[in-house]
Design brief:
Largest sheet: 5 strands, antiparallel
Number of helices: 1
Helix content: 10-25%
Shape: elongated
Distance between the termini: 58 Å
Strand content: 25-35%
Structural class: alpha+beta
Radius of gyration: 19 Å
Length: about 80
């Protein structure tokens, strides 16, 4: 009977868990900032600011999962 050596890293790499999206959070993107202004069961509303002092930015909506995927792919960091 042949015994196999146990692998040193049996589990795949896990990425850091993303904090749940909440109203008022500000996420830092490479070229802008994204502020979450509303949360529902399926949709999130948010504003994207190119400059922190920018005013009159249009509110956008997308699915919560899509927004999380967007933040993850752009390597966004939570500010507040």
């Amino acid at each position: 009977m042949i015994k196999r050596a146990a692998s040193k890293n049996p589990s795949p790499r896990k990425r850091a868990a993303m904090p749940p999206l909440e109203i008022g959070q500000v996420w830092k993107l490479p070229t802008a900032q994204l502020k979450i202004t509303g949360m529902g069961k399926l949709l999130a509303s948010y504003k994207v600011f190119r400059d922190p002092s920018q005013r009159g930015v249009q509110t956008q909506m997308s699915g919560i999962g899509d927004l999380q995927k967007y933040l993850r792919s752009n390597k966004a960091g939570l500010i507040k």
